[in-house]
Amino acid sequence: MSFILGIDTSCDETSIAVLEIESGKVFSNVISSQIDDHAEFGGVVPELASRKHMENLNVVYKKALKEAGISEFQISKIAVTQTPGLMGCLLVGICFAKALAYRLKIPLIPIQHLEAHLFSPFIEKDPTFPFLGLVVSGGHTAYYAVNSYDDIKLLGQTVDDAAGEAFDKGAKVMGLGYPGGPLVDKFAQNGDAKRFAFTVPRVKMGEQYLSFSGIKTAVVHHFHSLENFTDTDRNDLCASLQTVIVKSLIQKAKYFLKRGNYKAIALSGGVAMNSLLRKEVNQLEKSKKITVFLSAPTFCTDNAAMVAELARFRNPIEDIFPLHARPSQKLRAKDIAHKK
Ligand code: KG4
Ligand code: ZN
After folding, report:
1. Rounded mean pLDDT of 61-68?
2. Which stretches within 69-145 are classed as H helix?
3. What share of the chain has pLDDT > 70, as a percent?
4. How large is the average pLDDT for residues 164-189?
5. For residue 36, how far is its CA from the centre of ligand 1 (angstroms)?
6. Cα of 194 from ligand 2 centre, angstroms
7. Ligand 1 center–CA 180 separation, angstroms
8. For residue 53, which of 84, 19, 85 has the smallest C-alpha distance?
């Protein structure tokens, strides 16, 4: 058996995974979350995040090998997130990956983090092409037409906040804590989504776009209109907030499904954990006659298994030394060598 090691340090999770190359079986997927380190600041502090990655990486590496039951000499390829992400955070992972590739004399494959998310619903499963891919996270909300492992086209995205940010900011207004998404999801279970009137924002730039920044203002408005914020108010406001975000995401999915010839839809990213969104996407299977793939909960938020999974289908770079972190999304063609 031969193994690929995946590394992701793009934001606030230090993650290393070991996958068997042929079958794609996940032997380990260790995720060290920094949520508690950033919670007191109400969001990710980039400088703190990169320092924590430096502290954690070697520990996570050893744990990933141990859980997989292999020695480092059994790794035959390394995959690392190169873009997008926080500059300092990406650098820590890339330097570690380069040094390891050099020391073990094995090839290195740079991976685009959003593309890794796109394929996370297919870990230990075969993908169905072409599929409409939704990446819905704390940093991104985007729709892609995915025709193969190499042919990925961006169809549309948010013009401002990501869907996860809308959950987090709304939760912050209500004083619920960070990250807000899971808490809004929890309180919404007992809430009345019809009580507060939220409308799906329209974007002047074109129908392929979404917008979430106005939703926070709506939460502020309703929150301040309440005399004292009871548990019922909280639950109802959470339900309304969650419903408008999910409605907006589903409307856009239907818009793209109508305009493409997709066999499947695949949902990924941290917000793919949301119970209402999972339910609504599942319903598209019947109403739109397509196969639905949802990321398993452990592969929704940032993880290295998805990085290693995509790298199974990509070629390594010839020269590891010029490889550099890129905080913005685009990869230069020369950095990536797709399989023919
Ligand atoms: O993918 P992720 O770990 O980080 C980024 O790469 O951005 O996603 C984190 C986001 C946060 O905004 C968090 O609030 C949201 O995912 N999230 C949820 C749920 N679980 C996590 N949002 C809504 N409902 C959830 N159950
Ligand atoms: Zn991510």
Report:
1. 98
2. 87-104, 113-119
3. 96
4. 95
5. 15
6. 31
7. 8
8. 85
Q: Which ligand is nearest to the CA of 139?
A: 1
* Atom 4, ligand 1: residue with shortest CA distance: 138
Q: Can you tell me the distance from the alpha carbon of 22 to that of 111, in angstroms, rounded to the nearest whole number?
A: 19
What is the C-alpha to C-alpha distance for residues 276 and 274, in angstroms, rounded to an integer?
A: 6
pLDDT digits (tens, 9 = 90+) for 86-119: 999 999 999 999 999 999 999 999 999 999 999 9
Cis peptide before 179 (omega within 30 of 0): yes
Is residue 106 within 8 A of residue 93, CB to CB? The reply is no
Atom of ligand 1 nearest to the CA of 140: 7
Q: Could you say which ligand is closest to the alpha carbon of residue 161? A: 1
Other CB atoms within a 10 A radius of the CB of residue 154 amount to 13
CA distance 257 to 127: 17
What ligand has the least distance to the C-alpha of 49?
1
Report the pocket of ligand 1 as residue ranges, CB < 6 Å.
Answer: 11, 137-139, 164, 167-168, 179-182, 185, 269-271, 273-274, 301-302
Residue 269 CA: nearest ligand 1 atom is 1
Tell me the C-alpha distance between 227 and 204, whole Å.
35
Backbone angles phi, psi at 204, to 5 degrees: -65, -30
pTM of this structure: 0.93
Tell me, in angstroms, the distance from the centre of ligand 2 to residue 140's CA: 8
Q: Say if residue 16's pLDDT is above 80.
A: yes
Distance 69 CA to ligand 1 centre (A): 31
Say how many residues make up the chain.
340
Instruction: Give the pLDDT score at 328.
Output: 86
Q: Which helix (H) or strand (E) holds 50?
A: helix 46-68
**In the predicted model, is pLDDT for residue 268 greater than 70?**
yes
Residue whose CA lies nearest to ligand 1 atom number 14: 181
**Gap between the Cα atoms of 151 and 146, Å rounded:** 6
Burial 322-338 (b: 16+ CB within 10 A, else e): ebebbeebebeeeebee
Residues 106 and 84: their CA atoms lie apart, in Å, by 24
Structure tokens at 45: 């502090």
